[in-house]
Amino acid sequence: MGTEGDIGPGSGEIDDSDGGVRPALRIRTAETSTARRYGDFGYTVSGTGVTITGYTGPGGAVVIPTAINGVPVTAIGESAFEGNTGITGVTIPDSVTGIGDMAFERCTGLVSITIPDSVTGIGVGVFRSCTGLVSVTLSHNLTVIEDSAFRGCTGLVSVGLAGVIIPDSVTGIRAGAFSRCTGLTDVTIPAGVTDIGNWAFAGSYNITGITIQGPAVIGRSAFSYEDDFHGTGPALVNLRSLTIPRVTVIGEYAFFGSGLTGVTLPAGLTRIYRNAFENNASLTGVILEGRGMEAGIPFDEVWERYLAGSIGVDTSGR
């Protein structure tokens, strides 16, 4: 059973197979490199690749060169385009393999972007507060969507449908990756995702439906307030549909304050942390597929204390 202070899974850190923690992607200018100019772009050369470090052009549709002076462009550096409100689109060449932290943060004029399949990593907050961003196509070789990657992208319409397509290669969505994306209405998370980080979609209050296809661990407040029970910002009060056929763990406060009226919990669920469904005033029915409560799922008093309303719990299985 959870204890006071037991915050549950989903720290936003994704464990590597060797038991370590995969750090956020940071692409910085090497100390030994000298910043150079190529047209509107600032860049450095390190080894056999060029990193774009800045942009001073007029904006609009920006095309990043494939190579500079015969050396391939392999990375977009940390904060390279940060705060450039004049950019409406960016073409990233197939030579690029990594995009650094906050590379496009606060590019509020950016409407759409395609990240080519050559890219295997994107940094923390890479598109944070890009309020005009409507459409994103992610690399099919991306494995993790980093912390706050799309936080505050209020123009995004949907995840997994039209808007942001989460490729099957993704295994983890880190802390706050899609928090405060108030334009989202539907979320579909593919079967390969096994870790949904803390506050991953927190404050995205217009979401009405969530489908999680795989055996994911849902982190703390993943679909709730951004600041848990303190109630900073709105919870997912419009959420009506939750489809989680293979989810294995639901973290504390995961769906706190949502508008759910009924929940079906899958047979493979192994743990619900405390307060997971607290303050769900409209919740009137819970079904546990294929097992009863006596089968060993630790519910941490969730039935007695934290499911508001008149709850009917069906443990007969079907």
Automatic annotation (TrEMBL):
Pfam families recorded: LRR_5
Residue ranges of the region described as Disordered: 1-22
Domain of life: Bacteria
Residues annotated as transmembrane: none
Skewed-composition ranges (Gly residues): 1-11
Protein name in UniProt: Cell surface protein
